[in-house]
């Protein structure tokens, strides 16, 4: 790889676009030397600055400027300033013999280009792939607004990409790739620490150190991210634990709800089916009873109709009896006429010759007329009797009328039932509950008043007992204090007693008596007055005692009294405990009574609310919906009643029609009676004529007798006519007898039928009575069944309300399929109540908590995975850093040794002898620095997990700081030892200016020889050299040109002589640098 071309535009004095084309590979495989010459101030060094700038230099000092936009052409008197500067470096990478330094493989998950966002910006993805290209262009562009950009092969990249590329290609950004003015002397004048950075590039470990720095930055970022993730985990974990518990409760609640639903389905299904079976049984019984009732009613009505029909026939029977009587009379008349006719026939035989035959004939004719009339009458009577024997039309009419009457009664009963149902609906709507509620309110108020009175009595009792308890407790405290004082006095008396101290004892005892007197005067210690009095009497005997024995006896008495006092105190304590126990019991009773009062108050409040609600229903319009429903039901009932009324009207019309038919029948009966009356009158007329005829016959008999006696009756003609007349009369009589026989037979049949009808009527009445009893029983059963049905319907409604209150669909209950197991309703009810209690204990849980739990758990798991990933990344980065440290140290040591040898070699060439070397200055650090940090931190981690976490973060921070502070090489600096021939010098500071320049040049040549860069820019490094040393330097550069390409900015003729291409730089009046070029190879040819 070598520099093929350099393009500069707008950079410092190069305002116009200039191209510098450099020599490539020469025939002898040397890269050649390009010299840039020109007067001072013409802008030669700006070429070196442009190369340094495009290679990523950030130091304004190194670029000989103060700020970033100073590199842009500032303008002149004759040319305006530019707004941007751009430098492009064209590298030729076609030389197969040039092998750039590749980074050794380092294990670990490490991205060379850093972040993936570079891809979005079109940045390069792989430095190694870039280094395999034949042409590489590096461009840097800056604008006056401060915006800057880097490009490699016209693709935007970051500065770090450029730095990594240059490090891999062995470009020294701050060292030997571009050696500017004064850098040679400054190189020796710098401190060993500053010199170390130069050797990092010289030894070729800079690229690894960049990787190491990037890895350290990533490690620090990962540690910070890990700390933040752990902090988030610590924040989320308590919430997650709480959510886990809540989700557990929610799952338990769902499980209990499922179990509750299953048990409720079993429970309500059993109750529903039981109630439904009862309803069906009652409905079936009602239906059966109704059918039986209807059948019995029909049977009863039929029997009643038959009875009424029979009763209706009674009037015709009476008429028939009358006719029978009349027939009997007619029969008698016929019989009498027959006898008379027989007599007449007998007499007529005798009276053949009677002159009065004309009169007899006229009488016979009249008689025949009467007989004919009687026959006609008999015929009419037979017709009428036949009419009497067929009363079916009348019975049918009567039956229809009875049916209509029964229908009317049924409709009236239905109307009454509907009215009762209407009243029931009104009662269910709450219009009839006010009286009950008022009675319930009065009852609860009475209970509440009694409970308050009992509470007041109990409260007074409790206050009294509490005051007594306080008094007894206070008395007990005083007794205890007095006993303690007595014991203390007794102790002092025992200690202070001696025969010479009797007066002291007497005074103490008097003091003791005065204290006991105080106790005796206490009104709260009545129980102990007697004991205190005894003690006082016993102690009074001590006054004046001088004998130790008597004193001891007295003390023993006092001790016994005190012991008795204590026993009495214990009894009092027991009594006090009992009082306290009773007090607590009474207090508990008071509490229970207060609870009862509160319950009664709540019940009273609910009753008053119901009353108020009922009043509102009566007085206000806030129950419009309920009112509308009732009005709708009432409207339907009214429509039913109206329909029944219309049907009743129709029945009335039918009844009226039947009544009219009945009237017609009655009219027909009247006509029959009139006809009978007519027949009676005719019979009367016949009777009167018969009487007349009888009289005439009697007269005739007398005349015949007289004529017979006189012998006038012997005419044969007359006898013959009498015979004929006799035959006619006989024939007529036979007909009348036959008629009478048929009438008598019919009359007998009629009487027999009437007898049967009477018996049948009695049986019917008996059956009607039994049917009525049975029907009443059925009515009672039906009413009872209807009541039971109403109760079951009410229970079913209550059950349905309970089901709806438990938020269960009725269809689920109806369609629930039993498993066939035995169901114990009480056990199920207890189990349901137990589950409900458990649900109440669990309480309500927001269903969204499960969603929140899932989200929180997901976030927690994600963060936990991130901690794993971060820990893996941290371990991987630590491993990369360790491997890089090993690689850097190994590479640095080997290259450093080679540079030291080359340095000594080129030093001897330039100085014609002498000795020079470089040696490292080790850092003051222990080998196990990280272990020491861990041990120091572990000694402070004995105070809990929280501090351990903080210490872990602190340990990580210390590690990173340690790794940043102490490099992988383990050097704090590099020192140089240069001893020209014939001199003894301990430090390079003792060298002269020329010696210092030659020493620095020797070191630079050693670095180029050991680790050659693609090209090196030398900016007047030979300015301080004399002619001989310049020749030596030129020769060295010519020898090294087979390893690297040199661009020398110089005034030295020896260097120009060795150059292959010579560029001249001039500056015109406009302040713009211009280029002039000469290819010396062609010129020499």
UniProtKB/TrEMBL annotation:
RecF/RecN/SMC N-terminal domain span: 2-1073
Q: Does the keyword Coiled coil apply?
A: yes
Q: What GO molecular function annotation could you give as one example from this UniProt entry?
A: ATP hydrolysis activity
InterPro entries tied to this protein? P-loop_NTPase, RecF/RecN/SMC_N, SMC
- What are the record keywords, sorted? Coiled coil
Q: Which residue windows are coiled coil?
A: 286-317, 360-522, 590-682, 733-809
Under what name is this protein listed?
RecF/RecN/SMC N-terminal domain-containing protein
